[in-house]
Amino acid sequence: xxxxxxxxxxxxxxxxxxxxxxxxxxxxxxxxxxxxxxxxxxxxxxxxxxxxxxxxxxxxxxxxxxxxxxxxxxxxxxxxxxxxxxxxxxxxxxxxxxxxxxxxxxxxxxxxxxxxxxxxxxxxxxxxxxxxxxxxxxxxxxxxxxxxxxxxxxxxxxxxxxxxxxxxxxxxxxxxxxxxxxxxxxxxxxxxxxxxxxxxxxxxxxxxxxxxxxxxxxxxxxxxxxxxxxxxxxxxxxxx
Length: 240
Hints:
single chain; alpha+beta; 4-stranded mixed sheet
């Protein structure tokens, strides 16, 4: 049977004081304190790189929850890591369209190149590889994400060069969106704190041509790259 697990240790006093100040700022944004659990989990993840038992204990104490309640949420969402992971979470979309366009080949290539399996981290602690579900970027397929930033229209060769650059510490720029930062820094932004890097807040992405064509079609518009709705002009011409 084994011995029961001992209670999780607390953070060192200095770390605890700093996290408590941040946590109170987050909690104050919600009429019901327990609603702050998701951002608080990101907060402790920004400290430890994953949601530790100490981090769960901290969230429980700040929100007057049980550790079981915190654990139930922390283990439900894939965005919260359950074990130490790399500075860069490299996710390869293997959902239908990305897979057909080459996502499966990219994922296989990276597994072999990095020598890791799904959810595993390279020995240098730089890259954690995982396959991920659709990220609503099908018109840029196949897509690779690094710490939730988009790298569009990838190939096995470009993805391999990407992870090599990350491991070597070379600057890497996402196709769109904010400049890349480490996983811990990303977690702090997701906790609700501003990204203080110059230009980061102004960076943004946009929909691709296929998405915009679909939008125009939904509005009943026509033109280059837009298929006419059924029963529209194209159908009438076809009958002739």
